[in-house]
Specification:
The N terminus and C terminus are likely disordered. By secondary structure, this protein is mostly helical. Among the domains are: about 90 residues, Serine Threonine Protein Phosphatase 5, Tetratricopeptide repeat, CATH 1.25.40.10; about 80 residues, no CATH class. The N and C termini lie far apart (about 85 Å).
Length: about 350
Amino acid sequence: MDSSIPHELVFDDEPLDGVLYVADCRGATPADILDRWCVSDDLPPECLGAVAAILGRNLDKGRSLENGQLVSIVDYMEQSLVADGSGNPRELLKLARLCHAAGRSEQAEAAYRLALEDGEKDCTLVAEERWQAMNDLADLLDLMGRTEDAREERTLREGEMLLADHKSEELITVRTLAFNLFFAGRYRDAEWLYRGLISRRFQHPGTLTHLARVLLMQDRLPEAREAIAFAWQLIRDREVQQENQSYILPRILFFRILFAMLARSSYASLVKRLKRELRGGNNRESWTIEPVITHFRQYLRPHDFNFLEAIAEAINSAENMDRLNAFEVWIAGKDAISN
């Protein structure tokens, strides 16, 4: 058997095998090796790569293999990845699918997720590969009885596909999907979709506040500050103000107040501006910010935490302005002392 077979190419459509793989058509091809292994356990170790190449592209080709043979391929792939040390997403994806087929569910999930992680530009999956990997992962999670996790994976896949369509009318759906992922605690996945929306300049200042929210839940405070600083810069532009609804500015001010609290800085002037905006009456829309407030409770002084809750309630409903106003005298006194 010819052991110098190119493992990167996967052609097993008769009668092209010989032409594509060897100079003379009498040599063995990866397809030949796979066919032979399906009926015999006798396979030289140097030929495992050829079988792994085929199964990594199409698991259906290995349906006739015994579980022990699939396990051998999985072990070979794991050893190859460790030896290579590159963490190539495509190789990880092959390993994930082989683990999936061999019934190694936990290993398969880990490999799928590693393959889908952000990497270097020249070492990432193309869109179609990502979507297929996400679909395979969702199928695996369903088999593991984790229906909710599978649903969230399909939500992310749907969002990415809508972003790739470049249809502006679909972008509002993407933002809804990102919110669902945020609410489910899938902050990195929500971030991925929000950044896709930002790259398309979709409701730019508002989407930046959504991005800041998921960044804060990941304790990435400097990046959240940058997002809000950019949103603040945009919202002060008259053309942008005309394109965006007025409820965005109170949200930006909320984040700026939070940042001031965390830095132990004065925020009275920001509160004054916020109240002025809220008295307009037409700048409220339901906003889920409680998870962020709760997340940072341990870093806030008790009075700051209570005040932040009052701000969030006032942003959501004009009926809650009285509670916010009750803090005004105390803040003025605090700032007078600090100055």
